[in-house]
Design goal:
- The protein has 16 helices and 12 strands.
- Helix 7 (193-210) crosses helix 8 (218-228) and helix 8 (218-228) crosses helix 10.
- It starts with a helix and ends with a strand.
- A 5-stranded mixed sheet has the order 1-2-8-5-3. Strands 4-12-9 form a 3-stranded antiparallel sheet.
- Strand 1 and strand 2 form a beta hairpin.
- The protein has helices at residues 3-19, 25-43, 80-90, 110-118, 150-159, 164-183, 193-210, 218-228, 231-234, 241-267, 276-281, 293-324, 326-334, 339-350, 381-384, 420-437, and strands at residues 93-96, 104-107, 123-124, 191-192, 355-360, 364-366, 369-371, 376-380, 438-443, 448-449, 458-460, 462-467.
- The chain is of the alpha+beta class.
- Keywords: Heme, Iron, Metal-binding, Monooxygenase, Oxidoreductase.
């Protein structure tokens, strides 16, 4: 970020924080929307990449320097493996100068990714962890996109929600809700697994973690899809700016109300709970986070996206992996004790978030290339998890794979996924309950994959279940 951009960002943040004392947060967002509209009419619109799907060429037909793995259709068209393999083999630290998101470095081998992820003193996570820019007027700030010391303070404030003691207390509730969803599934007729199971279960879990109104849980996954799906950030399909601002205002309204209700209850003597809002209110460093709307909304957005896209797409990806590898499903039915190991293999195989972005804080030599200070660097976890140099037979899905948990999907270092144990527990419970009920899980037709260079997810996947005899 340039000095000018930093100054503008700081002034913008101060203005939002100051007015938050007397202007409700959702009104602030509506005011920002009007300012952006006025700016577009007078000064013009900031360029936003437009993506129209075309059939991608085979990677062998593309000159090495032109390979662009930021294309949001690479995963949807099933060509990501060949593109990343060529980069790993021929240019493991690869510079793409003319992507729609601007120039960036791709780091594609396992060990190089590990180096970047562990050296936060060399590579900054600020101001954003995805490849593109934030939508104009939506400069939300999240702790995953902060460097120490502020990252450490804000992460610490919410980390307790996924502490082992809390997870143990949540396990019974997660199992009960999983059983409820699975018991209502139709037998011997196709239904959409994504909508009926993956989204429903993650929505229920997010509502629990945030103590959000249960009957409105669908809003959480809807907001998450919008947040992660803008074209300028990830090449996503959500280009309706009015819908994005409306969703942001609605989200601000709901969470500000939830925050104030909890604060009033605590003031009346109700003990703090173990939900994320209560944990932030009970920590001195984040007790007044609502006075910083961009950080408040940013961190809640992060927790929603982190809890939604990763687990939900691993739930769907696991079913697809079993369908494509029926011998592994038979192995699992014969040896249910493999479920925990299989969960790690599903997360590696699916890699629900393809990458994290960093910015070099200084010149760095990596893989024989010189990354200059200020350059954007993308750690492609999706590629590292298929690196033949580190993982035997990496394209195979093996539920008894040795060292399955040594995947990159959760990241490493100070930014390692906070909710990794919760995600593993949700997936473990899902498969324990599936094995209790169903003898056959068949994917009917080709799954519909989302348009994104960040989320490796599914919009729709038809499935047919056969009951266990």
């Amino acid at each position: 970020m340039s000095i000018y951009s930093r100054a503008v960002d700081a002034a913008y943040t101060r203005a939002i924080n100051t007015t938050s004392r007397f202007v409700p947060m959702h009104w602030q967002i509506r005011a920002i929307e009007q300012l952006i509209k006025a700016k577009r009419m007078t000064l013009g619109e900031r360029p936003v990449p437009r993506f129209v799907e075309e059939v991608l060429p085979e990677v062998e037909a593309v000159p090495l320097h032109e390979i662009d793995v930021s294309n949001p259709f690479l995963y949807r068209q099933g060509k990501w493996q060949s593109y990343f393999k060529r980069l790993r083999d021929e240019a493991p630290v690869h510079f793409q100068a003319e992507s729609p998101f601007g120039p960036f470095w791709s780091v594609t081998r396992y060990d190089d990714i590990l180096f970047v992820d562990k050296h936060h003193e060399l590579f900054s996570a600020e101001p954003i962890i995805v490849l593109g820019d934030r939508p104009e007027g939506m400069a939300l700030k999240t702790f995953i996109a902060m460097d120490p010391p502020r990252h450490d303070v804000e992460r610490q404030a919410v980390q307790a929600v996924v502490a082992p003691k809390n997870l143990k207390e949540m396990e019974g509730l997660i199992r009960q809700r999983t059983q409820e969803v699975l018991d209502d599934l139709p037998l011997d007729q196709p239904f959409d697994w994504v909508e009926t199971v993956s989204i429903e279960l993650t929505g229920r879990m997010l509502a629990t973690l945030l103590d959000f109104p249960y009957e409105k849980r669908h809003l959480l996954t809807y907001w998450s899809d919008l947040i992660a799906g803008s074209p300028e950030m990830t090449g996503g399909a959500f280009s309706d700016k009015s819908e994005v601002f409306s969703a942001a205002a609605d989200m601000a309204l709901h969470f500000a109300q939830l925050w104030r209700d909890k604060k009033a209850r605590h003031a009346d003597g109700t003990p703090h709970g173990f939900d994320l809002i209560s944990l932030m209110q009970s920590n001195a460093d984040t007790a007044n986070l609502i006075d910083e709307p961009l950080v408040f909304l940013g961190n809640l957005s992060l927790l929603i996206v982190g809890g939604n896209d990763t687990t939900r797409n691993s739930m769907t990806g696991g079913v697809l992996a079993m369908h494509e590898n029926p011998a592994e499903f038979e192995k699992l039915k014969a040896t249910p004790g493999l479920i925990s190991n299989m969960v790690s293999e599903i997360i590696r195989w699916q890699t629900p978030l393809a990458y994290m972005r960093r910015v070099a804080k200084q010149d760095v030599e990596l893989g024989g290339r010189t990354i200059r200070k200020g350059d954007r660097v993308v750690m492609w976890y999706a590629s590292g998890n298929r690196d033949e140099r580190k993982i035997d037979n990496p394209d195979a899905f093996l539920i008894d794979r040795k060292g399955a948990r040594n995947h990159l999907s959760f990241g490493f270092g100070i930014h390692r996924c906070m909710g990794n144990r919760l995600a593993e527990m949700q997936l473990r419970i899902l498969w324990e309950e599936l094995l209790q009920r169903f003898d056959r899980i068949e994917v009917v037709g080709e799954p519909e994959r989302v348009q994104s260079n960040f989320v490796r997810g599914y919009a729709r996947m038809m499935v047919k279940l056969s009951a266990k005899a």
